[in-house]
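ok so i was messing around last nite and threw this chain in just to see what happens. nothing serious, just curious
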Amino acid sequence: MKFKKLALAAAVAALPATGFSMEAMEDSALSGVTGQDGISIGLNTELSAELRIHDADGFTDPAGVTANDRTDSAALIFQDFAITAIGGGAAQIDLEIDSGTNAGNDPTLNINVDLANGIDVNMGDLDVADSGRTTASTISAGWTVGTSVGTNRVDSVISLGSLTLGAGTSLNIQLGNEAQGDMIAIDTTISNGISISGFAINDADSGGGISQDVSIVDSAGANLTVATGINVDADSLNIGLAGIGDAGGMNVRLANLNIGDGTGGNVGDIELVGLQLSGSLEISGH
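result:
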């Protein structure tokens, strides 16, 4: 009996400290999280970063010599990447995370993502550089963060511009078992469609380039309907194309097409009306 009383007294004495630590976590780390049936997370953030992708095996030139045999491995660098709300400020991204099973008790983790206020994605510029790693043994040996590329670098090979996604854009991710049929299912209407401003392919040696603004909307409206799936199979990322646009397809406009260094006049606008796609886009290594 004395042991039970001692254990109870110890438990009661520990409550204030336990309560304090839980309150501190709620105030700092969990301010945007609520838990009922699953978890809801409201993310308000401005994100910026530089992304570096290293190609360790290079390419084969016409003389039959791989780039990695005579130089470093190559790096693709996406600089000035940023995500903000349309017009600036913090982007609001709402996540609903839940788990469950189907009739056969197959478990699924379900994550729904909604863009509450629409976002601007500044995709920045694509640069190419040597990786600063000169032999096959050092290619996979790791590097110091922030110094993973060499001094040879060509800036702005492609200016990717700014991608705008209107409010109401949503996608649903299922991991484990995919009752919806796809790992990522997108079934939404993007208000005002997709627009990309400032996209350009630049000729670094000659000083010119090809630039244009791009907009994509339904064939019969100002928004863009997207009902497609994204999956990862044995060797590639697979993105369905048939569900982009309405029954009549989509309209793609290349506006302000300019060829040169920007000092001359624009060629004009090019429109693809009622463009209908089928099949899928596959992305893989080689």
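not much to say yet. The two ends are 71 Å apart (CA to CA).
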